């Protein structure tokens, strides 16, 4: 089973955004980005696009300002959900940024519901599916995890992979 796509807000958040960071009150532009302003802007952008609450964002200090400069940040989710890696690129010399999530934020209950529906459609019988505790968690793209599926014929482990940042899921039932 391949190619399941979830609603954009439910499973994976891809940040395709442009942020304008507040300029400091200096008369000359700084040679580095304001670290605190960068982290606030990235936090807001991530928080607007994923359902899991973000407790903090960590970006490097002393980020050189300049067109095309790249750096990485991490958005730490509340609880034990994990850290989302972000790739950030400066799209102009003035501090305009484009950020992209490198990890998926999934909810095991939503994945289980989607997998159960897919199995029922494929095999035309009832299933129960367990993908672990509900709530958000971070999964690196293309990194498989497992769910347990049971029906009247028995149980099996299903390998689930979030294929891309658009939220495409691939299920390997192991037929």
Write down the Rg. Answer: 20 Å
Given as residue ranges, the uncertain stretches (5+ residues, pLDDT < 50) are 2-27
- Structural class by helix and strand composition: alpha+beta
Terminal-residue CA separation: 10 Å
Sum up the overall morphology in one term. Answer: elongated
Sheet with most strands: strand arrangement: 1-12-11-10-8
> What oligomeric state do these chains adopt?
single chain
The total strand number stands at: 12
Determine the fraction of residues in helical runs and give it as a percent range.
Answer: 10-25%
Overall tally of domains: 2
Run of helices and strands: EEHEEEEEHEEEEE
* Beta strand %: 35-45%
Tell me the major beta sheet. 5 strands, antiparallel
How many individual helices? 2
Q: What do the pLDDT scores average to?
A: 82
List keywords for this structure.
elongated; alpha+beta; 2 helices; 175 residues; disordered N terminus; 5-stranded antiparallel beta sheet
